[in-house]
Amino acid sequence: MPVVSVSMPTELIERLDAHAAEHDYTGRSEVVREGARALLTEFDDDRLEDSSLAGVISVFYDFGTRHVERRVTELRHEHNDHIASNDHSHVDDYCVDLFVLEADLEDISTFVGKLRAIEDVEAVDYSLVPLESMNQLQDA
Ligand SMILES: [Zn+2]
Question: Please, what are the domains in the chain?
Answer without folding.
Answer: 10-41 (no CATH), 53-139 (3.30.70.1150)
